[in-house]
Amino acid sequence: MPDPSILCRGPALKILNNFDCIFDALQEYADSAPADSAVKAQGFAKVVGHGNFVVSLKCAIAVLEHLENLNLAVQSSSKSVASMVTAMKMTVGALNDLRDEDRFQALFEEAVMLCRESDVPFPELPRQRRPPKRFCGPVPAHSWTTAEEYFRSQFFHVVDTAVSQLKRRYDQPGLHQYMQLENVLIAADTSSDDLKTVTSPYPEMDADRLAVQLAMMRQQHWQLESVEDIAIRYKAQISSTSCSQYV
């Protein structure tokens, strides 16, 4: 799963909506603060008030918005694992759509426009270090020629990392095995072959007894959406059965 703290980082990154006010307040504090704090504030204002920071923040927001929506969709005990995996796959599709030249071009142009409106330096190509010859050999090392090329590669790298990490989380044998068991329980599937296949990794589960319980669930027309719903129903039934013995 994505880091839950992204839920609070996402809105915090949207400072670009009030970039002028925040930047002016930071500069004002740097001019009026004591010497020690003023130095730190001036250094922070120098970083924030530059096009490289603006375009980096634009790229981060584009990716984190999808991860934040995924967090909101899956962080619930009433959700089934199958629905969570579906949400992850949809998020992967949305992130892959970001890996497009036109999408990045639009983000970069928005950043440049904001820099122009806020009177801050435009994005610049960072200083490029020449790698050791033992890594690149006699061939000239790759170097970016424009700031747009550099930030495009960084943005695509962030998108690729997010996609690979999400795929690594939902494409696991153990998770697929759990989904099979979950689907059998929610659908109340009493097929003996499927039950034996699903319950074989769990020696504490009796496939025959489980088939009887699933048939009872189907007769009572329980509306179940997750394993938690099944546990709540069974606990309530056990409690009512225990109470009826003393009536």
First-residue to last-residue Cα separation: 48 Å
Portion of residues in beta strands equals under 5%
Secondary structure category: mainly alpha
The residue-averaged pLDDT reads 78
When the domains are counted, the total is: 2
The radius of gyration over CA amounts to: 27 Å
SS field, number of helical segments: 12
Poorly predicted regions: 241-247
Largest sheet: none
Helical coverage, percent range: over 70%
Could you give the count of β-strands?
0
Envelope shape: elongated
Q: How do the SSEs run, as a string of H and E?
A: HHHHHHHHHHHH
Structure description:
This protein is 72% helix and 0% strand. The C terminus is likely disordered. The chain folds into 2 domains: 166 residues, no CATH class; 70 residues, no CATH class. The radius of gyration is 27 Å and the shape is elongated. It is mostly helical. It starts with 5 loop residues before the first helix and ends with a helix. It is built from 12 helices and no strands. Helix 4 packs parallel to helix 8 and helix 5 packs antiparallel against helix 8.
